[in-house]
Amino acid sequence: xEILVLIIxxxxxxxxxxxxxxxxxxxxNIAGSALLLLLAVSVTGRFIMQGLxxxxxxxDLFYFDYLNxxxxxTIVIVSFLVSVYAVGYLNExxxxxxxxxxxxKLYYSLTHVFIFTMVLVVSTQNLGLMWIAIEAxxxxxxxxxGFHNNKNAIEAAWKYIIICSVGIALALxxxxxxxxxxxxxxxxPHNSLSWVFLYENALLLQGSVLKISFIFVLAGFGxxxxxVPMHTWLPDAHSQAPSPISALLSGVLLNSAMYGIIRVLVxxxxxxxxxxxxxxxxxxIGLLSIAAAALFILPQKxxxxxxxxxxxxxxxxxxxxxxxxxPLAVYGALFHMLNHAFTxxxxxxxxxxxxxxxxxxxxxxxxxxxxxxxxxGVVFLLGxxxxxGMPPFSVFASELNIIIASFEAGHxxxxxxxxxxxxxxxxxxxxxxxxxxFANNVSEQVIHGEVNKSGTIVVVIMxxxxxxxxxxxxxxxxxxxxxxxxxxxxxx
Amino acid sequence: MEYYLDSLSLLILIxxxxxxxxxxxxxxxxxxxxxxxxxxxxxGVIGMENFFSEGSLEIIVIAxxxxxxxxxxxxxxxQNTVNKVEYKVEKDFFLNIPIGVLICCALVMLVYYSVxxxxxxxxxxxxxxxxxSISVVLIGxxxxxxxxxxxxxxxxxxxxxxxxxxxxxxxANGMPIIIELGMFxxxxxxxxxxxxxxxxxxxxxxxxDINKLRNLRG
Amino acid sequence: xxxxVFYIIVQILVMVLLxxxxxxxxxxxxxxxxxxxxxxxxQMYYDLYKLMKKDTVVSDTASWIFRITPYLTFTATLTxxxxxxxxxxxxxxxxxxxxxxxxxxxALSRFFMTLAGLDTGSTFGGMGSSxxxxxxxxxxxxxxxxxxxxxxxxxxxxxxxxxxxAAADSITVFQPSYLLTFMAIFIILIGEACRTPVxxxxxxxxxxxxxxAMLLEYSGRYxxxxxxxxxxxxxxxxxxxxxxxxxxEGLIEIASPALALAVSxxxxxxxxxxxxxxxxxxxxxxxxxxxxxxPNLGALSFTLAFLGFVQHFMLGR
Lengths: 492, 218, 317
Known about the structure:
Distance between the termini of chain A: 34 Å
Strand content of chain B: under 5%
Oligomer: heterotrimer
Structural class of chain B: mainly alpha
Order of helices and strands of chain B: HHHHHHH
């Protein structure tokens, strides 16, 4: 039954080519993602209720445990919300003649293939297959990034595919080295890339080769996550892609790539016995990413690019937390992944509405959002504060967790630097973006009123989610997160 | 046996040097073809040995796959792309060739020192295989950054993958076959997508010079 | 002592008498490939004899360097050849690190040739000198690295020792790194002997002259000495290749030393013949490189030598 999680998005993406009717296409889109959501929730429910530890199916390749399910649920929920939004967004673009039926079909089809590859990343325990899936996410999303087919979009797509492919190839080298360190130790080589197997036998592996392997994996998957200095593709790709795709890229794809790092990190930490080696690297790269993001946010003129840099910052935060590696820090990291997914997607969807209305990506050309798009405006305003880390939103809660963990673990200087940098980013984001909201001289061409009804509802829902989870995390979800965190930090 | 593997890994390294020393796009594709052919021979030799000792055909299948994909199909695909995209015969590289070759020598030394500090000297030929293969990876990356035309970057990426494949093949008798198949599919798709993007770049920018792609900055 | 003197005599005789033949063989190969008859094999001997009888004309502006250079280069080259034995059966002049002596002697001769090219004040000479310097600056490091690698592989510090080791135990010596040094030294040979693709020995066009440009002002016995010196230099490198990489001496199992010496000399002639034919074929099948592409060739030979060096190191010896 679990295999349906993989089959549904794949089948959905093929169904699009059967019809030419716009409404039918929209229905297939929503139905597909809704079905996926229901399935994932039911699998999760069954998992929790039966008190399972892990779920393996289809010849040991596919695997679910708390960590997997957590990521899967995040991906599926965000995808569903984005799909609902996309209906309204694409309708608008269709009305304005920017896209035709063929492009619509291409968009939907590629999106669902993209979702399929991301689901594949988190539903396998074979590190090789995980690598293949992560590479596949890059390939599936290239043409989505270059969807608008103008100069900037093509440039962004080219940078995306080249830099990410090189990065992922380096990660492959890391995984090959990991495989090499198991050679000669185990009889059957087919097990050697299975995460469960590696986790159990982590102490038998060769430490020195694992160290080199980790460097390659961090550099490689770190490229896909957007850690500095491998981040150069991220602002371009996330700003040039259509807004729903940016939401997916920023919200869930970065998480999936980070998931890859986490899996390898756990094994290596278990083998080395302490996280000093990996921790130093992760913390350094995390702080570097936040600092670089803070620096680059200030002069930004394009609001989507600014949000992309904010994604880099948040991935840096997660890397920093994973560097600390205490149970609280890991909990904070996973919680942050969840919060960032919702908040960032919400923000990008709002920018979608703004782009539809104002037809420009420049901050200076946009004024009076609160007046013209009242609902979206409010959501966007609150969202900006949320992403910058203001209470009572959820991002604040997870960042607080991480700061506490950092000081508890004795990393005083790093914690202090962390706080300062976060403050800088807060200042940068708000000072750049706040100009957009208040009306000075609104141009007459811009018509009042919300533009994407279904989308607006979606973003409001997301806002409520992040507000609620910031204040009070339901017990079940908290327990779920804790179990997932236990898998990661259990090795210590 | 080990003598053959030694020589083959050395020849693969030399072929990547030859790649850096080339100046024209057609030569890039031909050198890549040569390197992939060496890879086929390598996989074939290891596969034969595997077959006679364990009776498994997996590596031979992989060797045949490389033959079909990397020696025939992908070079033909790239050649078609190059033929359709008009480009002027102009200087393609940032650094002149001798400096590039010397930098690659320095990269080999760098890899040698890194690997030596990790792997002790008496573990047979593992060290020499690792150094040669990882050098090919780094030389592929260097090739990518030292060329101005988009096709150069694709070929650099392919050489990088060749290097990784060599690492896996020489030190661990290749990855499990499902993974290898997945890698091939990924690689093929990636090259096809990159080829398609080169067309689009040519349409939009009137050339495939990467330096022209500079609109998004900061 | 007597052995050394005997050796010196044999070595010098072989070098001086054999080297003009090489030019003849290569010329014949090139001619045959173009379906011509070409000059006779002994052509260079006739040329040298003719030049010896002629007057020398020296420019007014030339200094003592111009007059001394032919003697100097010839002597230096012959002295260098003493360290590269044609056969390993004679007790040679050799010491640890003599290859560096050889390189320096060749550099000395090249230095004076360059000065002489500049000395007459003609533009051709200066141009040839600068080109020669550029080419040699690329090839010399490669030669050094290649020979040191060979020394490391064979475990000996003198060229004679290397040749002996190669002859004694060719199986272990012939590894990939050894073959890499062969390729490197072959490219260096082409460069030093001024053959295509580095330099065209039969041209007198300013676009393509390197070695010829420096000799342009010489005439008579000076020219004869310079030509002979260049031929001996070529033979030095061919000997290096022949004795290091085609070690047939292992097949000689004759007791009497005199007979062994004779047989080894015959083998040597055969080896030189083979390599010369090889060079000739290489000349036929390649074209002269653009001048600014020559650093590429130099870098190539350096890389090959360097890779051989690294590969040898990595095998953990």
